[in-house]
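Notes from hallway chat w/ T.B., transcribed later so I don't forget. T.B. wanted the structure written out for a chain they're using in a teaching module, and asked if we could keep both sequence and structure tokens in one place. Agreed to drop them here.
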Amino acid sequence: MSRWYVYYEGDATHSVLARFIDIVRYSLPAYDGRLLVNGGAAHALHGEPGGGAYTILVEFPDRKAAEQWYESALVTLIREKASVWPDGRLLLMEGAA
């Protein structure tokens, strides 16, 4: 069964999502989203590190739900409050559950 994931990696001191994580958490149930990782540092085992000391991984049932969440009013509010969105990398990925 295919699931979709939103992965964020950025600087913890400047992270937009770190500052608004409560809004992110509140916004997920409407899109059947589930926060899997919040705030842990990523360590590259191979290749160049992504440069993020703060990571978030959110799981969604399908691509449509992930995209609707990203375009939702609450996430739009976060984007509008940020001078740069995102300050790290934000990826949409397909994967197996």
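Follow-up for T.B.: Helices lie at 16-19, 21-27, 63-71, 73-81. Might be a good example for the class.
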